[in-house]
């Protein structure tokens, strides 16, 4: 494999830090050509000193450092254009990751996609651009990376079901009547993964899994009725597929984000990992149906996937606003689903093909959600 030039978006987050670990471990295979962080200037500058050839972008605030040459949301797009990257790892959280995904593909750059919102908001557009510009579209979520590998070289007509697993988060065994009293710190305490604040809350509510259902529908072009979610507390089985003969095929590994990132960076090759592999001897694997009364965000996601059009856009926008309000202690934990459900009661039957139209619906969903949050927090 020739050396690949890698650009990391969201370099100070979990995806970014793990991607840097892969690059450090494989200096003969990768050149880091650029880094973007939102607010964490100190980490960005530290990484810049370690990788002096990397272009740097701080998008969330102005920097006085001469090392940082790009700023703002437009700076991210310019960074992508100037980077001459072979692959962009998009680890930006939320809808703000959409335009960078589009820009990377328009520049003919392979996209390692951890920003699930790109597919939720604009799956058809993203796939069209990847095909038009002959770019690889490589999922970095552990579940979708697993499905990508499981489905590779298999004819679609023999697949009857895609199964995404979920740890169940910190409240899998909590009584429903106790949900109103859940605190921010309790919701941030994920039992398996180390993640940012927003994604940790999404994992607690299972909105994260809901977004992944929509992402799988878009990415692999399966009807939502062929997609299932199972609670798997051990987080060893990342996804499964069921074929028409009722056989199950699974991807099983340690819950370590470095694996799907490494698979994406080396694609189409596969390399041995330098860390400990999973030994199944003595391990227990449990699976349960999710309780949709405890996790209404998952139920709402399936409904949005069935409705299509702009419903997934509204689901994501409302959830982002509700999570921010909960983290700022403006609303209780249980109101996250209420805000999202209220927003989805509006008309989302519009069909969007362009990014600007998609972002208009995204903004509308946020305005509706914010108004409801204000009313709830009076």
From TrEMBL:
GO terms for biological process: isopentenyl diphosphate biosynthetic process, methylerythritol 4-phosphate pathway involved in terpenoid biosynthetic process. Keywords: Isomerase, Isoprene biosynthesis, Magnesium, Manganese, Metal-binding, NADP, Oxidoreductase. Its cofactor is Mg(2+); Mn(2+). InterPro entries: DXP_reductoisomerase (IPR003821), DXP_reductoisomerase_C (IPR013644), DXP_reductoisomerase_N (IPR013512), DXPR_C (IPR026877), DXPR_C_sf (IPR036169), NAD(P)-bd_dom_sf (IPR036291). NADPH binds at residues 13-15, 40, 115, 117, 196. Pathway: Isoprenoid biosynthesis; isopentenyl diphosphate biosynthesis via DXP pathway; isopentenyl diphosphate from 1-deoxy-D-xylulose 5-phosphate: step 1/6. Residues 137-220 form the 1-deoxy-D-xylulose 5-phosphate reductoisomerase C-terminal domain. 1-deoxy-D-xylulose 5-phosphate binds at residues 116, 142-143, 167, 190, 203, 208-209, 212. Mn(2+) binds at residues 141, 143, 212. Residues 6-123 form the 1-deoxy-D-xylulose 5-phosphate reductoisomerase N-terminal domain. Its EC number is 1.1.1.267. Residues 253-367 form the DXP reductoisomerase C-terminal domain. It comes from the Bacteria. It catalyses: 2-C-methyl-D-erythritol 4-phosphate + NADP(+) = 1-deoxy-D-xylulose 5-phosphate + NADPH + H(+). GO terms for molecular function: 1-deoxy-D-xylulose-5-phosphate reductoisomerase activity; isomerase activity; manganese ion binding; NADPH binding. HAMAP family: DXP_reductoisom. Belongs to the DXR family. Catalyzes the NADPH-dependent rearrangement and reduction of 1-deoxy-D-xylulose-5-phosphate (DXP) to 2-C-methyl-D-erythritol 4-phosphate (MEP). This is 1-deoxy-D-xylulose 5-phosphate reductoisomerase. The lineage of its organism: Bacteria, Pseudomonadati, Spirochaetota, Spirochaetia, Spirochaetales. The gene is dxr.
């Amino acid at each position: 494999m020739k050396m690949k030039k890698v650009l990391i978006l969201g370099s100070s987050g979990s995806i970014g830090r793990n991607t840097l670990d892969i690059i450090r471990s494989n200096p003969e295979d990768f050149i880091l050509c650029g880094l973007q962080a939102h607010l964490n200037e100190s980490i960005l500058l530290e990484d810049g000193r370690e990788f002096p050839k990397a272009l740097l972008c701080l998008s969330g605030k102005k920097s006085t450092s001469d090392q940082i040459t790009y700023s703002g949301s437009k700076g991210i797009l310019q960074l992508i254009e100037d980077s001459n990257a072979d692959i962009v790892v998009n680890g930006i959280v939320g809808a703000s990751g959409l335009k960078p995904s589009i820009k990377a593909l328009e520049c003919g750059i392979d996209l390692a996609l951890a920003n699930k919102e790109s597919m939720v908001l604009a799956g058809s557009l993203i796939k069209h651009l990847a095909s038009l510009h002959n770019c690889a579209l490589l999922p970095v979520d552990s579940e979708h990376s697993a499905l990508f590998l499981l489905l590779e070289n298999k004819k679609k007509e023999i697949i009857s079901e895609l199964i995404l697993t979920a740890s169940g988060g910190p409240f899998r065994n909590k009584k429903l009547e106790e949900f109103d009293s859940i605190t921010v710190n309790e919701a941030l305490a994920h039992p398996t993964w180390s993640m940012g604040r927003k994604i940790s809350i999404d994992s607690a509510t299972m909105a994260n899994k809901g977004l992944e259902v929509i992402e799988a529908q878009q990415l692999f072009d399966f009807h939502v009725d062929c997609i299932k979610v199972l609670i798997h507390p051990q987080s060893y089985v990342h996804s499964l597929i069921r074929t028409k003969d009722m056989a199950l095929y699974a991807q099983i590994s340690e819950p370590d984000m470095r694996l799907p990132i490494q698979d994406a960076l080396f694609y189409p090759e596969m390399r041995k990992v330098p860390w400990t592999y999973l030994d199944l001897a003595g391990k227990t694997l449990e699976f349960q149906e999710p309780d949709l009364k405890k996790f209404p965000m998952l139920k709402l996601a399936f409904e949005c996937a069935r409705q299509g059009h702009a419903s997934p856009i509204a689901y994501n926008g409302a959830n982002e606003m509700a999570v921010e309000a909960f983290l700022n202690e403006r609303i209780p934990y249980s109101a996250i689903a209420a805000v999202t459900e209220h927003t989805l009661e509006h008309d989302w039957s519009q069909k969007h093909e362009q990014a600007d139209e998609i972002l208009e619906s995204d903004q509308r969903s946020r305005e509706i959600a914010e108004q409801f949050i204000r009313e709830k927090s009076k």
